[in-house]
Backbone:
């Protein structure tokens, strides 16, 4: 085989690779545009504004010596006093990642409090809950890896792990 034929074959292979890369890039870009258009409802005209989700961080958890409260962005405030707290659960749903899908549920005998994961003050809440006698961290770990509708009991008054 002569040198010219080898060089010609190498150039042809290189050109083919470049063309395939350009076609792939075009195809990916086109597919992304089509997916975005289907999400925003844009049929080729003016793009609609996507629905806005309320960030979970707009829920604000406040801890005190007497209890915990969660102020929701729509104005609702839920409160549970520490001496009334009966049970702590984590609720997971299959609605994520575009909707809140993990919630802390604090059950009291007179009131209750539902707090979405990601709420402002959630870290401090978890630290306070972990100080409860018999709090089950393994239930929290299992909950955080769940992608189905399920409840995980983390603590119950009078029950030691």
Residues:
């Amino acid at each position: 085989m002569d040198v010219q034929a080898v060089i010609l074959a190498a150039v042809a292979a290189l050109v083919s690779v470049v063309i395939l890369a350009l076609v792939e890039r075009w195809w990916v870009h086109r597919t992304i545009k089509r997916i975005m258009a289907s999400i925003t409802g844009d049929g080729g005209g003016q793009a609609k504004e996507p629905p806005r989700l309320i960030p979970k961080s707009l829920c604000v958890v406040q801890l005190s010596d007497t209890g915990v409260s969660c102020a929701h962005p729509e104005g609702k405030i839920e409160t549970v006093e520490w001496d009334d707290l009966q049970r702590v659960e984590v609720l997971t749903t299959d609605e994520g990642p575009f909707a809140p899908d993990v919630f802390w549920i604090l059950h009291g005998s007179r009131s209750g409090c539902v707090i979405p994961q990601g709420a402002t003050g959630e870290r401090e809440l978890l630290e306070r809950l972990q100080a409860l006698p018999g709090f089950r961290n393994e239930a929290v770990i299992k909950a955080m890896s769940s992608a189905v509708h399920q409840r995980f009991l983390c603590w119950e008054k009078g029950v030691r792990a």
